[in-house]
Each structure stands twice: as C-alpha cells, then as structure tokens.
C-alpha cells in the first residue's frame, strides 16, 4: 500500500510539499524542485515553499546561502494552472497572490541565493532565476515568458525584464513569447554564467560558496542599491489581472490546449500558445 504523502504547512526544513526537497550541505542549503509527473510546474504550496525556504535560510544562523535547482531537463516552468490542492493544505488559485510567491523574497534575501538553471525556465521560474543573486545556467537551458498568452498582465515582468535585458528585448520576449536559448540568455543578461550541463551543479555550488564569503552588512547595502534599480511594479494592477476575465479564459485555453478566444480566428493555432 502506498504511503499517504505528507500534507502539512512548512515547518523547519519541511517546505510544505513533497515536491520540494530541502537539503543541508554544510552551511549551504539546496532546494530541489522535484515534481516530474507535472514537469516541475509549481503548485501554490510549492510557490509558497520556495518563499519559505529563502526566509528559513535567512533565519538560520548555521546556514550561509541557498541554491535553487530542478530535476531532469526542467528548472521551473511556472505555475501549474491545472493543479487542484494536490498538496493537501493549499492550492494555486488561493495562494497565487503576490504575498505568497517567492519573487520579492529572492530579490531581497539577506543571504545569497543562486539558481542552478538545469533546463526549461519560464514564467515564475525565469523570474526566480533573474532575481537570484547569480543565475548559473546549463548550456541546455531555455527561457520563455508566456504570461500574456495566459491573459495575465504580469507587471512584475513588465518592470523587471526591461531593466534586466533592455526594453527592446523585453518587448520581444513578452509580446511574442519566443524561446531564448542559453547562449542568447547569457548574451542578453538574463543569466550571468552558462556552463556545460554536467558541470552545472558543481559550478553553482562554487558560486554560492564565493558569494557566501562576502560581508553580510556590506552585501545587504549593495543589494539594496540593486533592488532600488529594479524599482516597483504595479502590484494592484497585477492582482486585478489575476482575478479578471482574461486570466480565466487564458486558464481554460491552456487546460483545453487551444488558442484563447481573444485570438482572431485566422491566427489561432492548434494546441497551446
């Protein structure tokens, strides 16, 4: 008989979901996104669990930094639009508010956060990678920002992405949904390092070790300047969009593997956009 999965909110090194693994490697913590049956798509509890992990590491005196990675050929593809309370205590619709996702926690973390981008990175996954202190990517990694095809006015992307890669490239990614290769991501500044796939984890650990040797107070002052550079996004507008009709239609179209109804008939494609 298969054991019932653990279904309780985060506590200690437990991140509130069996799909996130928290490991201590000396003074470093590693969070691995491990949900192969859904290609690592994040449930509400998983989003919250990554946020919790950042804050948990910040509180633990014996932990110096955090590494985030995924399994197989997927880092994080964003939220699971079809998840229905698979973690037992939280589901995506009720936990998708910006208070519960990890983006601000990663961006403002007191301790270093490094992303080891092992494969597909899009939506929330790309945002986590960009806002990490350092993003090290496999040469097999790919990047995409498909939110506008889901009916979501992701104003956080609208704020962060132009500052990361410039407005022309940001418009290209957001308005066409194009897939960006690892080489392009390095050239554009989406990530800061690209390494051979088999060297990824070791390189990311090395980077986190180096970042964790910096003086905490001085590091925080520098991070505040970088945080100020990114600026503030229209959070109210994004929350309104998430509750609006376009997001509902975007969810249904994604679930039904079709183009949303706002797409002109002659522009509709078979399958998801």
Instruction: Supply the number of helical segments.
Output: 11
Oligomer: single chain
How many DSSP-defined strands? 10
Name the strands of the widest sheet in spatial order.
Answer: 1-2-3-5-7-10
Helix content: 25-40%
- CATH topology, what is it called? 2-enoyl-CoA Hydratase, Chain A, domain 1
Written account of the structure:
The structure is a single chain. By secondary structure, the protein is of the alpha/beta class. It has one domain (20-242): 2-enoyl-CoA Hydratase, Chain A, domain 1, CATH 3.90.226.10. The chain has eleven helices and ten strands. The protein has helices at 44-59, 92-95, 103-107, 124-131, 155-165, 167-176, 182-188, 200-211, 216-230, 235-242, 245-255; strands at 20-25, 28-33, 65-70, 74-76, 113-117, 120-122, 134-138, 142-144, 180-181, 193-195. A six-stranded mixed beta sheet has the order 1-2-3-5-7-10, sandwiched between helices. A four-stranded mixed beta sheet has the order 4-6-8-9. Helix 5 packs across helix 6. The mean pLDDT is 93.
